[in-house]
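We modelled the chain as a single entity of 461 amino acids. Its sequence is:
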Amino acid sequence: MSNAALLSLEDFDALVEDGTIDTVICAAPDPYGRTVGKRLTVNAFRSLGIDGDGINASSFIFAVDLEMNPLNLPVSNATNGWADIRLVPDLATLRHVPWEPNCAMVICDAYESDNDELLSVAPRTILKRQIARADEVGLAFQFASELEFFLSQTSPREAWDLGYQNLKMTTDYRSDYQMIQSARDDWFIRQIRNLMPDFGIPIESSKPEWGLGQQEVTLDYCSTLEMADRHVLFKYGVKQLAHQSDLTVTFMAKPDIDEVGSSCHLHVSMWSADAAQSPLCWSDMTPGGMSTKFGSFVAGQLEHAADISLMFAPTINSYKRFQPDQFAGSAIALGADNRSCAFRLVGHGPSFRVENRIPGADVNPYYAYAATIAAGLDGIQRELPTPAVFTGNAWDQAHEIETVPTSLHAALDRFAECKMLRAAFGDEQFEHILASSQNELVAYDSGAVTDWEKKRYYERV
């Protein structure tokens, strides 16, 4: 899929020549879906990123917690001196940054420092491996992330000083789909709709969501790796634009227990990997429209959903979103345009696809897409039968329908025993993710006293 907003080296050189660009942001996606890297002068980018071996960075950027504390993982630890790796620009992702007009930005792959091997535990590497596995059996996938987030009128500095408590949101009452509220918000949201396409991220639509200050922006679908890149760049861009507008934005899955959560519905369709790129999801010959192969792909996702939920719900907070009757994909069932199910069939013919409603807005797309492909390929390889389509309210069938784990504790237990994903990702990559997530759990269990605990225990125990 062509993207006119991306820069060729000739385009880049022209913008440098006329004085438009003087800085290049070289960034790689980290385990939390953040962009990490360096800002380079144009000369340094040319000498290191284009003509050289890449930009040196410490391997610890793939082995830290959210506070940037080193985790002492095999890839980066005190013994190996938190050794350097190389960030090598993927020049196919080079783009101009509309809200920083003097900057270009490029996504980098992480490589070993002393050879031409991709760093195995880097999220982009993990996804590339699953794309390659699919290509080996003649399959390709198109993804789309459907992201929600909350906006507050409280400035970022004041929000930090307040501990993110009692923030003034951009709406005062529920305004889901309401065009009056949409018009009030559009002074900011139109910046996203208008500037993101210039950043190489085509936008389909925007609307106010159900939560106070909540927004939904829908991205156009595209190939797997490009969609994962667009996802992290979209979040980067929204945060930058919000900061410039003195707004505070969060992609937390559940910023307030009394508020609805923010999802990231993943839409995925299956195509042939040959030059024809034929859609493979739909069949006029089967009930419900699922082709036999796509039915097996979907069956694999359902079978492994609970075991790989860590790939869709990566934080302590993620699991607070799985409340009944709040449209979170907690009931592992397949529905035809049924939002009570974790998996929802939508579209018809070439647009036919499955939507995974489990992920929250805090998801790392590289992990989530990779796990989706791995689970689906397992279903195809084992020729799992097409799953039945559930009708009715799946939330009312909790005694019959399996649900996703409701805590990081439970999700980690399921993930640790998932032989399918260990085999698909590889032992090193699997153990890296597992250890990182276990550290997050320990940090919470032993390092936090919550407001809930104080209210419950302060005087009464």
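As a brief sanity check on the tokenised model: The chain has twelve helices and 15 strands. The chain has a mean pLDDT of 94.
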